[in-house]
Design brief:
The protein has 215 residues and is α/β, with parallel strands linked by helices. The protein has a single domain (6-209), classed as Maf protein, CATH 3.90.950. It has helices at residues 14-24, 49-64, 101-114, 181-185, 197-209; strands at 6-9, 30-33, 68-77, 124-134, 140-151, 167-169. Strands 2-1-3-4-5-6 form a six-stranded mixed β-sheet. Helix 1 (14-24) links the parallel strand 1 and strand 2. The longest helix is centred in the first third of the chain and has 16 residues, at 49-64. The mean pLDDT is 92.
Length: 215
């Protein structure tokens, strides 16, 4: 895939769209989204991040006739046997269909407390992001990134979105919720490292599909 002028991000999640738009910004690529184009949201009933990412990307690519990039991501907590995992957004879903991530973070904390996971070593986990690039002909490619860390309580910081205020990445003393977008991602073209799960997946995508030189 050569560097496109415009790419369709197969998402209706404002936080994800903003983060992916920011990652594309140094590359000079214009980003539009499934939300911008009024495309319907397909049901996400897969059992893996890859399955859900493919569902979203393929639906957007076929509906628009454009290459589409989707993201399916979530929080995997070791003490909770990998939960919430692919159900990360569901844990935040309220009876009226809205999402409240303060409620979701409390659910995670309550579940950790119920299992006696009170020490930092017992509260390990990771954010996982799987990007899927789909073409209108049905072909797909996947790029997976993981960011290990630990769950903290109470939540700290008001930046980012989702569960960011309770996730402290390894090697850092601040949560994702206390970091600016640039700090959270920790990557731009030419950098060797990326911090966030989404930036790590995007780095692979940029190197393998957009011709960005590997570092």
């Amino acid at each position: 895939m050569s560097m496109p002028e415009t790419i369709l991000v197969a998402s209706h999640n404002a936080g994800k769209i903003a983060e992916i738009t920011g990652l594309f910004a140094p590359l000079g690529v214009k980003v539009t989204s499934a939300a911008d184009m009024g495309l319907p949201e397909p049901p996400e009933d897969g059992e893996t991040f890859e399955a859900n990412a493919a569902t979203k990307a393929l639906a957007a690519a076929k509906a628009s006739g454009l290459p589409a990039l989707s993201d399916d991501s979530g929080l995997v907590v070791d003490a909770l046997d990998g939960a919430p995992g692919v159900f990360t957004a569901d844990w935040a879903t309220m009876p009226d269909g809205s999402r409240d991530f303060l409620v979701a973070m409390q659910k995670v904390e309550d579940a950790l407390q119920a299992r006696g996971a009170t020490e930092p070593a017992q509260r390990t986990g990771r954010f996982v992001a799987t990007l899927c690039l789909a073409e209108p002909d049905g072909s797909v490619e996947f790029f997976r990134g993981e960011a290990p860390g630990q769950l903290v309580w109470p939540p700290r910081g008001k930046m980012g979105f989702g569960y960011d205020p309770v996730f402290q990445p390894d090697g850092h003393k601040r949560t994702f919720g206390e970091m600016s977008a640039d700090e959270k991602h920790g990557w731009k073209p030419g950098d060797a490292a990326a911090l966030s799960h989404r930036a790590r997946a995007f780095k692979l995508f940029a190197e393998e599909c957009l011709g960005i030189v590997k570092t």
